[in-house]
Amino acid sequence: MPERLTEMLMDTWTPLIILWITVLPSIYMTPMNQSQVLPSGSSTGLKRLTEEQRVLNRFKRGWVWNQMFVLEEFSGPEPILVGRLHTDLDPGSSKIKYILSGDGAGTIFVINDKTGDIHAMKRLDREEKAEYTLTAQAVDRDTNKPLEPPSEFIIKVQDINDNAPEFVDGPYHATVPEMSVVGTFVTKVTATDADDPVYGNSAKLVYSILEGQPYFSIEPHTAIIKTALPNMDREAKEEYFVVIQAKDMGGHMGGLSGTTTVTITLTDVNDNPPKFAQSLYHFSVTEDVALGEPIGRVKANDLDIGENAKSSYDIIEGDGMDIFEITTDAQTQDGIIRVRKPLDFETKKSYTLKVEAANVHIDPRFISGGPFKDTATVKIVVEDADEPPVFSSPTYLLEVHENAAVNSVIGQVTAHDPDVSSSPIRFSIDRHTDLERQFNINAEDGKITLATPLDRETNTWHNITIVATETRNHSQVSRVPVAIKVLDVNDNAPEFASEHEAFLCENGKPGQVIQIVSAIDKDDPKNGHYFLYSLLPEMVNNPNFTIKKNE
């Protein structure tokens, strides 16, 4: 309380003291004798001075005045007395005339040519012009001859506190990370004051917060704004509106003030883990779904934003880890579950997975608040789909002898409906693969029969396609290739490769080879051909020729 009373008294008396100091030099001015000082009783020496010496001594005498000041913004019923010009040559006989020239002479400042009194005729503003340079001269009123050399002097405009501080760069916007410790730098503001920063406290500024506590503080003299409350959470409140005041006169009573606003936004840090919207997800998918097709999405929400909210998904447990996969949607941050391998309702009707969402970017400052991940359970039900028939073999190979009887069964194909409903199957031959209609098939049991005789020597292989169709849904069709190999039987006699005509000289010797013959056979026995050669019956008894196998 005593300190506050002292401040109040200082605020009250300071302007009065300044005014007294300013006006007093104008009201009372002590003459300053700059003439040569002579010792007393030296009248004899004085008489010896020549006129030239007296003129010289006169020029050594100078103007007499104090430094002049005028208070800015002063206005009253009469012009304000700034000061008085005086020379020690003036005996008071009104023979000296004072002349004023320079900045504002005759308009702003007017001089009484008899007394030397200078008055300010207008209200002055220090912020517009802080000082005026003028020239004073004393002349003989009768002859207008200079009595002294001109002398230049300055009238300074004394400052008063007539300008409030201003924040020329406001309003301000600043950011600071959430969860910052107390004393973290936020920003710095600056106010300017047009008053004189040297004279008095008119431009001495002190900063304070009018709105924004207890969250932020400001250093009174540097205007640095800092956090004042620990662990401010962006997810609870993101933006703060702070009002800053700058007050001159060192912040004392009577000082002028100006304000500005600072909008402070808390930037995000990764201080929140992802959290699944639900702990259990249910999805269903038909068994005929295409590989890579998404079957469902899961979502782990994160209160953070931007990079701090990004999560990656993974399947960490379950009986379908090799059947399903999960990826992250970069746009929505969803986890997308897809099929990796074919599903079969008849083999396995459901799967249970445990999925995990984990933050991609972890802030080590908040690792103790972890773990920055969450898990959820996903149950997937496989639904039955109407599947086409399935043959017992992907291909069939049948063999039949070329002499097989027409309508004889040469083989059989089988197929079944894998669905629970198990529709009956009908079989048929794709006639585009059997244009000569060489074969038939029993539509009920899939037995393939011979429709026309076979000839291995004409066609050794027949490739046909068998079609299996569900009777309950004709759109469910399957096809299987059937290769039929025709086996050889000995149904062709050997033939000579060519006709032969042999010649023998009359002097031929017994045992001489006169011709080699060869035979061919259209059949294809497993062990190759073996031919027996002999002469025709009518030549058997001819003693001149014989035939034997060429070993």
From TrEMBL:
It is found in: Cell membrane. It comes from Oceanodroma tethys. One of its GO terms (molecular function) is cadherin binding. Signal peptide: none annotated. It holds the Pfam family Cadherin. This is CADH8 protein. One of its GO terms (biological process) is cell-cell adhesion mediated by cadherin. Its main location: membrane. Residues 87-167, 168-276, 277-391, 392-496 form the Cadherin domain.
